[in-house]
Amino acid sequence: MRVAVVTGGGAGIGRAAVERLANDGELVVALDRDERALADLAEKAAGAGWTVRTRQVDIADDDAVERFATELATEFESIDTLVCAAGIQRYGTVEETSMELFDEVIGVNLRGVFAACHFLMPLLRADGGGSVVVVSSNQAYASQARVAAYATTKGALLALVRSMAVDHAADGVRVNAVCPGSVDTPMLRWAADLFSDGRPADDVVAEWGRTHPLGRVARPAEIADAIAYLASPQASFVTGTDLVVDGGVMAALGVALPEPTGEN
Prior knowledge:
The structure is a single chain. By secondary structure, the chain is an alpha/beta fold. The chain folds into 2 domains: 3-181 and 221-243, NAD(P)-binding Rossmann-like Domain (Rossmann fold), CATH 3.40.50; 184-217, no CATH class. The chain is 44% helix and 14% strand. It contains 8 helices and 7 strands. The protein has helices at residues 12-23, 35-48, 62-75, 99-124, 148-168, 186-194, 201-209, 220-231, and strands at residues 3-7, 27-32, 52-56, 81-84, 131-135, 174-180, 242-245. The longest helix is centred in the middle third of the chain and has 26 residues, at 99-124. The model has no long low-confidence stretch (mean pLDDT 96).
Protein backbone atom coordinates (compact mmCIF):
# COMPACT_ATOMS: atom_id res chain seq x y z
CA MET A 1 0.00 0.00 0.00
CA ARG A 2 1.30 3.43 -0.93
CA VAL A 3 1.83 5.81 1.98
CA ALA A 4 1.16 9.54 1.76
CA VAL A 5 1.58 12.39 4.23
CA VAL A 6 -0.54 15.53 3.80
CA THR A 7 0.06 18.71 5.77
CA GLY A 8 -2.94 20.95 6.31
CA GLY A 9 -5.03 17.82 5.86
CA GLY A 10 -7.92 18.90 8.07
CA ALA A 11 -9.58 21.37 5.72
CA GLY A 12 -9.61 22.93 2.27
CA ILE A 13 -7.25 21.70 -0.42
CA GLY A 14 -5.36 19.52 2.06
CA ARG A 15 -8.55 17.79 3.15
CA ALA A 16 -9.54 17.20 -0.48
CA ALA A 17 -6.10 15.74 -1.18
CA VAL A 18 -6.42 13.36 1.78
CA GLU A 19 -9.81 12.18 0.58
CA ARG A 20 -8.66 11.75 -3.03
CA LEU A 21 -5.52 9.79 -2.16
CA ALA A 22 -7.34 7.67 0.42
CA ASN A 23 -10.11 6.94 -2.05
CA ASP A 24 -7.41 5.77 -4.46
CA GLY A 25 -6.39 3.17 -1.89
CA GLU A 26 -3.43 4.89 -0.24
CA LEU A 27 -2.68 4.98 3.46
CA VAL A 28 -2.79 8.69 4.25
CA VAL A 29 -1.42 10.42 7.32
CA ALA A 30 -3.13 13.79 7.69
CA LEU A 31 -1.43 16.52 9.70
CA ASP A 32 -3.18 19.63 10.96
CA ARG A 33 -3.11 21.86 14.01
CA ASP A 34 -6.93 21.89 14.21
CA GLU A 35 -7.94 18.95 16.39
CA ARG A 36 -11.65 19.35 15.63
CA ALA A 37 -11.05 19.27 11.86
CA LEU A 38 -8.97 16.12 12.24
CA ALA A 39 -11.71 14.45 14.29
CA ASP A 40 -14.24 15.25 11.59
CA LEU A 41 -11.90 13.84 8.94
CA ALA A 42 -11.34 10.65 10.95
CA GLU A 43 -15.08 10.15 11.30
CA LYS A 44 -15.65 10.55 7.56
CA ALA A 45 -12.73 8.24 6.75
CA ALA A 46 -14.09 5.53 9.02
CA GLY A 47 -17.47 5.72 7.32
CA ALA A 48 -15.90 5.57 3.87
CA GLY A 49 -13.58 2.70 4.72
CA TRP A 50 -10.47 4.77 4.00
CA THR A 51 -7.11 4.15 5.66
CA VAL A 52 -6.50 7.57 7.15
CA ARG A 53 -4.52 8.44 10.25
CA THR A 54 -4.61 11.87 11.81
CA ARG A 55 -1.95 13.71 13.77
CA GLN A 56 -2.22 17.09 15.42
CA VAL A 57 0.95 18.84 14.32
CA ASP A 58 1.62 22.55 13.90
CA ILE A 59 3.71 22.68 10.74
CA ALA A 60 5.30 25.94 11.94
CA ASP A 61 6.76 24.09 14.95
CA ASP A 62 10.07 22.60 13.79
CA ASP A 63 10.38 20.34 16.82
CA ALA A 64 6.87 18.96 16.36
CA VAL A 65 7.54 18.19 12.69
CA GLU A 66 10.82 16.48 13.57
CA ARG A 67 9.14 14.38 16.27
CA PHE A 68 6.46 13.33 13.81
CA ALA A 69 9.04 12.33 11.19
CA THR A 70 11.00 10.32 13.76
CA GLU A 71 7.88 8.49 14.92
CA LEU A 72 6.79 7.83 11.33
CA ALA A 73 10.18 6.29 10.55
CA THR A 74 9.70 3.73 13.32
CA GLU A 75 6.66 2.38 11.48
CA PHE A 76 7.45 2.90 7.81
CA GLU A 77 10.75 2.37 6.05
CA SER A 78 9.66 4.77 3.32
CA ILE A 79 6.77 6.95 2.14
CA ASP A 80 5.60 7.55 -1.41
CA THR A 81 4.05 11.00 -1.30
CA LEU A 82 4.30 14.23 0.64
CA VAL A 83 1.67 16.89 -0.04
CA CYS A 84 2.42 20.27 1.53
CA ALA A 85 -0.96 22.00 1.66
CA ALA A 86 -0.88 23.85 4.99
CA GLY A 87 -1.17 27.58 4.50
CA ILE A 88 -2.58 30.82 5.88
CA GLN A 89 -3.60 34.14 4.33
CA ARG A 90 -2.98 37.52 5.91
CA TYR A 91 -3.54 40.93 4.34
CA GLY A 92 -1.41 44.06 4.35
CA THR A 93 1.09 46.05 2.35
CA VAL A 94 4.77 45.81 3.26
CA GLU A 95 4.24 48.92 5.40
CA GLU A 96 1.08 47.67 7.10
CA THR A 97 2.39 44.16 7.79
CA SER A 98 4.14 43.92 11.12
CA MET A 99 7.31 41.90 11.44
CA GLU A 100 5.43 39.49 13.72
CA LEU A 101 2.71 38.97 11.11
CA PHE A 102 5.28 38.50 8.36
CA ASP A 103 7.04 35.87 10.48
CA GLU A 104 3.72 34.09 11.07
CA VAL A 105 3.01 33.79 7.34
CA ILE A 106 6.58 32.78 6.54
CA GLY A 107 6.53 30.24 9.37
CA VAL A 108 3.51 28.36 8.02
CA ASN A 109 3.59 28.90 4.28
CA LEU A 110 7.31 28.66 3.60
CA ARG A 111 9.28 27.43 6.60
CA GLY A 112 6.58 24.81 7.27
CA VAL A 113 7.06 23.38 3.78
CA PHE A 114 10.83 23.47 4.20
CA ALA A 115 10.58 21.68 7.55
CA ALA A 116 8.28 18.96 6.25
CA CYS A 117 10.58 18.30 3.30
CA HIS A 118 13.71 18.52 5.44
CA PHE A 119 12.58 15.95 7.97
CA LEU A 120 10.66 13.62 5.63
CA MET A 121 13.06 13.55 2.65
CA PRO A 122 14.95 10.52 4.06
CA LEU A 123 11.70 8.53 3.99
CA LEU A 124 10.85 9.76 0.49
CA ARG A 125 14.13 8.60 -1.01
CA ALA A 126 14.51 5.47 1.09
CA ASP A 127 12.92 3.02 -1.35
CA GLY A 128 13.95 4.40 -4.70
CA GLY A 129 12.11 7.67 -4.53
CA GLY A 130 8.75 9.33 -4.11
CA SER A 131 6.90 12.53 -4.91
CA VAL A 132 6.49 15.91 -3.23
CA VAL A 133 3.62 18.18 -4.25
CA VAL A 134 3.63 21.72 -2.87
CA VAL A 135 0.50 23.87 -2.95
CA SER A 136 1.56 27.32 -4.11
CA SER A 137 -0.78 29.83 -5.78
CA ASN A 138 -1.21 31.84 -8.95
CA GLN A 139 -0.17 34.72 -6.68
CA ALA A 140 3.33 33.37 -7.15
CA TYR A 141 3.15 35.08 -10.57
CA ALA A 142 0.81 38.04 -10.15
CA SER A 143 -0.33 39.77 -7.02
CA GLN A 144 -3.54 41.09 -5.58
CA ALA A 145 -3.34 44.26 -3.52
CA ARG A 146 -2.19 44.05 0.12
CA VAL A 147 -0.84 40.49 0.14
CA ALA A 148 2.86 41.28 0.55
CA ALA A 149 3.62 38.44 2.96
CA TYR A 150 1.41 35.82 1.30
CA ALA A 151 2.64 36.50 -2.23
CA THR A 152 6.23 36.42 -1.00
CA THR A 153 5.80 32.92 0.36
CA LYS A 154 4.03 31.59 -2.71
CA GLY A 155 6.71 32.88 -5.06
CA ALA A 156 9.46 31.51 -2.83
CA LEU A 157 7.82 28.09 -2.83
CA LEU A 158 8.32 27.78 -6.59
CA ALA A 159 12.03 28.49 -6.19
CA LEU A 160 12.20 25.89 -3.41
CA VAL A 161 10.39 23.34 -5.59
CA ARG A 162 12.85 23.82 -8.44
CA SER A 163 15.81 23.56 -6.08
CA MET A 164 14.57 20.34 -4.47
CA ALA A 165 13.71 18.87 -7.87
CA VAL A 166 17.29 19.35 -9.04
CA ASP A 167 18.88 18.24 -5.78
CA HIS A 168 16.85 15.05 -5.37
CA ALA A 169 16.32 13.87 -8.94
CA ALA A 170 19.15 11.36 -8.50
CA ASP A 171 17.33 10.00 -5.44
CA GLY A 172 14.23 9.34 -7.54
CA VAL A 173 12.26 12.05 -5.75
CA ARG A 174 10.09 14.24 -7.97
CA VAL A 175 9.09 17.67 -6.66
CA ASN A 176 6.34 19.77 -8.22
CA ALA A 177 3.92 22.55 -7.33
CA VAL A 178 0.27 23.13 -8.04
CA CYS A 179 -0.80 26.77 -8.35
CA PRO A 180 -4.54 27.28 -7.84
CA GLY A 181 -6.60 30.38 -8.41
CA SER A 182 -9.51 31.02 -6.06
CA VAL A 183 -10.75 27.83 -4.41
CA ASP A 184 -13.87 27.47 -2.28
CA THR A 185 -12.15 26.65 0.99
CA PRO A 186 -12.60 27.85 4.57
CA MET A 187 -9.70 30.25 3.96
CA LEU A 188 -11.46 31.80 0.97
CA ARG A 189 -14.70 32.04 2.96
CA TRP A 190 -12.78 33.78 5.75
CA ALA A 191 -11.49 36.30 3.23
CA ALA A 192 -14.97 36.73 1.75
CA ASP A 193 -16.35 37.57 5.19
CA LEU A 194 -13.48 39.98 5.73
CA PHE A 195 -14.30 41.95 2.58
CA SER A 196 -18.06 41.37 2.44
CA ASP A 197 -19.12 44.79 3.75
CA GLY A 198 -22.25 43.13 5.06
CA ARG A 199 -23.00 41.07 1.95
CA PRO A 200 -23.44 37.28 2.14
CA ALA A 201 -20.14 35.43 1.68
CA ASP A 202 -21.74 33.42 -1.12
CA ASP A 203 -22.22 36.63 -3.11
CA VAL A 204 -18.61 37.66 -2.62
CA VAL A 205 -17.31 34.23 -3.64
CA ALA A 206 -19.55 34.26 -6.71
CA GLU A 207 -18.27 37.73 -7.61
CA TRP A 208 -14.68 36.54 -7.34
CA GLY A 209 -15.60 33.53 -9.44
CA ARG A 210 -16.79 35.77 -12.26
CA THR A 211 -13.26 37.17 -12.57
CA HIS A 212 -12.16 33.70 -13.73
CA PRO A 213 -12.75 32.99 -17.43
CA LEU A 214 -14.53 29.76 -16.45
CA GLY A 215 -16.93 31.87 -14.41
CA ARG A 216 -16.52 30.34 -10.96
CA VAL A 217 -14.03 29.50 -8.25
CA ALA A 218 -12.58 26.00 -8.07
CA ARG A 219 -13.80 23.16 -5.91
CA PRO A 220 -11.10 21.73 -3.60
CA ALA A 221 -11.53 18.32 -5.25
CA GLU A 222 -10.45 19.83 -8.58
CA ILE A 223 -7.13 20.90 -7.07
CA ALA A 224 -6.82 17.49 -5.41
CA ASP A 225 -7.13 15.89 -8.85
CA ALA A 226 -4.09 17.86 -10.00
CA ILE A 227 -2.20 16.90 -6.84
CA ALA A 228 -3.05 13.24 -7.35
CA TYR A 229 -1.77 13.39 -10.92
CA LEU A 230 1.56 14.97 -9.94
CA ALA A 231 1.99 12.41 -7.15
CA SER A 232 1.16 9.45 -9.37
CA PRO A 233 3.30 7.28 -11.67
CA GLN A 234 1.46 8.96 -14.57
CA ALA A 235 3.67 11.99 -13.91
CA SER A 236 6.85 9.91 -13.74
CA PHE A 237 8.77 12.31 -16.03
CA VAL A 238 7.44 15.50 -14.45
CA THR A 239 9.60 17.30 -11.90
CA GLY A 240 10.52 20.87 -11.07
CA THR A 241 7.36 22.26 -12.62
CA ASP A 242 4.36 24.26 -11.49
CA LEU A 243 0.91 23.26 -12.69
CA VAL A 244 -1.51 26.19 -12.86
CA VAL A 245 -5.11 25.25 -12.02
CA ASP A 246 -6.83 28.63 -11.95
CA GLY A 247 -9.82 28.62 -14.26
CA GLY A 248 -7.92 30.72 -16.81
CA VAL A 249 -7.13 33.72 -14.60
CA MET A 250 -3.47 33.88 -15.60
CA ALA A 251 -4.41 33.56 -19.29
CA ALA A 252 -6.66 36.63 -19.29
CA LEU A 253 -5.78 40.31 -19.47
CA GLY A 254 -7.58 42.58 -17.02
CA VAL A 255 -8.42 45.08 -19.76
CA ALA A 256 -11.59 44.04 -21.59
CA LEU A 257 -12.64 45.12 -25.04
CA PRO A 258 -15.70 47.38 -25.15
CA GLU A 259 -18.99 45.66 -25.78
CA PRO A 260 -20.02 45.71 -29.46
CA THR A 261 -22.64 48.37 -30.26
CA GLY A 262 -24.10 46.56 -33.25
CA GLU A 263 -22.97 49.34 -35.60
CA ASN A 264 -20.84 48.51 -38.63
